[in-house]
Amino acid sequence: MMLRTPSLLLAGVVLLPILFGPACATGRPTKNQDLTPLAQLPEEFATAWRAWRDETPEWREWRPRVKADAKLANFFVDNLVRLMIKSYEDSGLRPRGELAGPFERASRELVYLQDYSAPVMIELIPMGDTIVSFLAGDILMQIDDGRWCLPLAKKLQGGKAEDRRRAAEWLGKLPGAGDEEEAVWELLEKTLADPDWTVRVQGATTIGLRATARGRVDLARAPLSRALGDSNPDVVKAACKAIGKGGDLNCVPALINLLERGERAQEFHLIRAAQETLEQLTKQKGHLGSAAWRNWWGIWWKANRS
Questions:
Q1: 75 touches 9 (CB < 8 A)
Q2: CA separation for the pair 270, 120 (Å, rounded)
Q3: CA-to-CA distance for 123 and 27, rounded, in angstroms?
Q4: Predicted confidence (pLDDT) at residue 28 exceeds the cutoff of 50
Q5: Contacts of 268 (CB under 8 A, 6+ apart)
Q6: pLDDT at 122
Q7: Helix/strand/coil (H/E/C) assignment for every residue in 117-166
Q8: What is the CA radius of gyration of the chain?
Q9: Tell me: the pLDDT tens digits for 73-98?
Q10: Which of 86, 197, 80 is nearest to 131 (CA)?
Q11: pLDDT digits (tens, 9 = 90+) for 135-177
């Protein structure tokens, strides 16, 4: 069996260029690149890998040892990533109820070794390869630890538009970042000014998801209201959808402004988006036109403001 040699890891070489370096144009690991026969590995590495591969009773003792040893852990992460991708491509997923196969076992260990695997997953998410990006994001979701949000949020800047969009998408599926949430939020808000409209769409969606998940829809009010003024209709629709799901009635004035803008420009997609979101938020039917909605809002505000 051929495995990635640990010597490169011990030398401190970054994993990603080795796994998906320029020698592989598709971004996938090559079959023999930088591989070493199992028999030629240092004894500790070979013994630990055999214990995991063969599911021997000794693996129970090896597992915490691997996690506690950075060299062993990085060696495992490197090879588990390869195995996970290959098993997925070979349709190695097991039906629910069956014993775990190579894909499930590799995924489980990557989650267990999160201190070493999460940084690698964050680097893989912006990859041009859709499958690799999906698998990396799925591992981060299973890890479910907010401390990896800020490193991922930093991928919202620079790189290709699709890289930034993917980073924003997966941020919408991760938990709160605790003390670092403010920094994450600041980077997310900048996506609404991204030159690529697909990044702005995903940014608006993720802002809504993270605010709603935290029970702080008020945080999304200002950025989503600004997004309603975007020149791209898909961004506007995404902002409307996020506002509707969040249920923040204080966004009603911004939606009325959007409705009025659509009326003036006779842009019916804007009128429809604003009207539907207003009805979703207020549970009111029959109010047609910005003037009617302004009248309703004025009455509601006087009756309900504290």
A1: yes
A2: 41
A3: 12
A4: no
A5: 262
A6: 96
A7: HHHHHHHHCCCCCHHHHHHHHHHHHHHCCHHHHHHHHHHHCCCCHHHHHH
A8: 24
A9: 999 999 999 999 988 888 755 555 55
A10: 86
A11: 999 999 999 999 999 999 999 998 999 999 999 999 999 999 9
Alpha helix segments (H runs only) across 11-129: 15-19, 43-53, 59-68, 70-89, 102-112, 114-124
- Let me know if residue 108 belongs to a domain: no
- Residue 256 three-state SS: helix
Q: Contact 139/117 with Cβ under 8 angstroms?
A: yes
Pairing of strands 35-37, 2-4: antiparallel
**Domains in the chain, number:** 2
Dist. CA 209–CA 237, nearest whole Å: 15
In a domain, 149, yes or no: no
pTM of the model: 0.84
Cα 3 from Cα 145, distance rounded (Å): 29
- Please report, as a single letter, which amino acid is at residue 39: A
How many other CB atoms sit within 10 Å of the CB of residue 202? Answer: 26
Asked whether residue 57 is domain-assigned, the answer is no
> Looking at residue 263, which CATH number applies to its domain?
1.25.10.10
Eight-class DSSP state of 32: S
- Burial (CB < 10 A; 0-12, 13-18, 19+), residue 247, is exposed
Domain membership of residue 255 as a residue range: 181-306
Is 263 domain-assigned? yes
**Torsion (CA) 268, 272, 275, 280 in degrees, nearest 10:** -170
